[in-house]
Design goal:
single chain; 87 residues; mainly alpha
């Protein structure tokens, strides 16, 4: 427990020494989290939405979801309709 308190003190010191970098990182994470959560909500992917809402790993999970996992169609077939008027 003492080590945790010491590491939090070091983190606080870093934040005070580099407030601009901390702000840039915060904007970066919020941007990607917002985009990915919006996409997951539109696609009604509840498990992804909950995972991204709870886990915070610097936007990495959100970027992977946004560009890779949200584009894959696991086990879903595309609906191909044939027009009745075609010969």
């Amino acid at each position: 427990m003492n080590q945790f308190i010491q590491s939090m003190g070091q983190f606080d010191a870093w934040l005070q020494a580099h407030p601009i970098l901390a702000g840039i990182f915060l904007v970066w994470v919020l941007l990607w989290k917002g985009l990915a959560l919006w996409k997951a909500a539109q696609k009604t992917e509840t498990y992804w939405f909950i995972a991204m809402l709870i886990l915070n790993i610097g936007g990495i999970l959100e970027i992977l979801y946004y560009f890779i996992f949200s584009e894959k169609k696991f086990g879903k077939k595309k609906d191909i309709s044939i027009s009745e008027n075609s010969n």
